[in-house]
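To close the section, here is one more complete example, presented without commentary so you can practise reading it yourself. The ligand is adenosine-5'-triphosphate.
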Amino acid sequence: MTDRPAPPIIELQEVWKSFGPLDVLRGVDLAIRPGATTVIIGPSGCGKSVLLKHMVGLLHPDRGRVRFDGRDIAGLGETALRPVRRRIGFVFQSGGLFDSMTVQENVCFPLAEHRHGSSDEWADRCREALRVVGLDGLQTTMPGQLSGGQRKRVALARAIVTDPDVILYDEPTTGLDPIRADLINELIVRLKTRARSTAVVVTHDMTSARKVADRIVMLYEGRFIADTTPDALDGIDDDQVRRFVQGQAAPEQLRDLQVVTRLTQGQSRTPTP
Ligand SMILES: Nc1ncnc2c1ncn2[C@@H]1O[C@H](COP(=O)(O)OP(=O)(O)OP(=O)(O)O)[C@@H](O)[C@H]1O
Ligand SMILES: [Mg+2]
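Output:
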């Protein structure tokens, strides 16, 4: 008997999403296999955050299906979504900490929201989550007193406090220096090993993508144009993928830049009265 691959924990089928005239997702298909880390790359504004929000029901598709553990969540309301959300940790692009709450209150927020355990357990769970991210002891600190890297780690602690099956990370390393970014990458890798959880990471940070990914997919103009492993990424024969991965602007973008340069040079030659 051959081993069948485990069914996907999250599955998007033919997902379409527009905002007014803007078609952001144009028939996206993606199956997230359990126990692996899938990294979604793609240019700014291409719809990566929109895609991630569909996975937790924060956005609903205009057309298509979104399944979590086999169940279609595309049209579910807030109450019906609660058991699904309990199984998913979400690290928001902005961090999303509440500035008026202490670190502990922020970390415990999902426990309160899901009425998960007794309040006596919350302090223990919070300590454990903060210990994992190396911030135990900062429970009573206010987010405004934290560095950018610490805020990201508190957001991560909040995402893992319910022991989720899946963690979704939206730009977890953006805005951090390379050392602190590496610390977050290391945490993502360790969390997956420790909890055998599934992760989906949205990033434009290629160092991070290569370090944490089992699989890398690239979103471009509303569809996936690459689905590969970190090792095979450099061998992909597609201009858009190659430019993105190597951080090179397209010729037409450089032409736009020449126009700007000519304009500014023209201005500087204008004689002052
Ligand atoms: N709620 C919304 N209402 C209207 N437009 C939206 C909404 N959410 C996203 N958009 C638009 O959808 C497009 C994709 O946005 P999204 O935030 O997913 O991009 P992204 O790939 O995550 O970009 P970045 O890398 O800069 O974070 C953008 O043009 C954005 O302005
Ligand atoms: Mg985004």
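Once you have examined the tokens, check your reading against these statements. The beta strands are 10-19, 22-32, 37-41, 63-68, 71-72, 88-91, 166-170, 198-202, 215-220, 223-228. The pocket of adenosine-5'-triphosphate (ligand 1) is lined by residues 19, 22, 24, 42, 44-50, 93, 204 (CB under 6 Å).
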